Pentatricopeptide repeat-containing protein (Populus tomentosa), 119 residues
Amino acid sequence: MAYANQIFKQTQNPTIILFNAMIKGYSLNGPFEESFRLFSSMKNRGIWPDECTLAPLLKACSSLSVLQLGKCIHKEVVVVGFEGFSSIRIGVIELYSSCGVMEDAEKVFDEMYQRDVIV
């Protein structure tokens, strides 16, 4: 991630694709907090998140077991209308289950209209 971060910092006008790649990289490899810093930077630049932004942030929240921040990301998911994406739903279920809030995880699972082998 160090080399990717060097390249990212040299980019004058990073696109959502570049932000998403960096956010996903940090959400998988850490440090997880860096995902949230990049998300904040992205929003400060006026770049709106998409499902490829928010799903990794939910993963980072799960990895850190930070329920309150995860709930904020979940709220953002609902506001922008991405709650129907399976990657988002899986992320929300993982968040609530990793934080021990099984009732909410089950509720999200029960509300899914399309389930597959992964879910």
